[in-house]
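Narrative summary of target 7.
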Amino acid sequence: MTAPAPGTDGRSDRPRTATHYSVAPEPETPEGYVAPGMPGAPVAGYHPAPAPEPAPQGRRRRGRRGGRTTVAIALAVAAMLAGALAYGLAPARAASTVGWLAIAPAAAVALPLGRLGGRGHALPPLGALLAAGALFLGQLIGEARRLPGPTGAYDALLRDALAHWRADRHPLDAVFYGIALIGGFLLTRRAAARD
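Modeled conformation, tokenized:
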């Protein structure tokens, strides 16, 4: 007796082979069904946010940052004048020790300028110029203090102080101005970065 051929009229012990189609079979899912988690599937509990209202046209108000920058510049100028007074009226007026204090007016200028003014691109150069201005005014005040006796009018006092300032300059003063410029720039930028 012979064994029946597989798949004809008896069962075979061989595993069924895969059925190959030349065209994909129709899906067994209803029309329009999208599986959860797939693109296009609705999300339960999702409510889109309403569109923001357009800004009103007409007169634009100045932003908060613009007002803060103006206050920062005003405070930095006040700090420059205070730093110049402190530098010029320092009790120990030895040129070799007081000159290194050029970083103090730079820090006094940079703190309000950076913290209140923010990250404006013009503020670090302005901080450098104000720090150098504080150093210059401080040196003029110091020279005016050392002038012998009252000279009369303020213009004569300023002229004499400038003449003494020019005559009393040393090469090390360029280093002090460099410290003031670089310190004012970097400290303003660093104070703005902490904002």
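Residues 88 and 139 are 6 Å apart (CA to CA).
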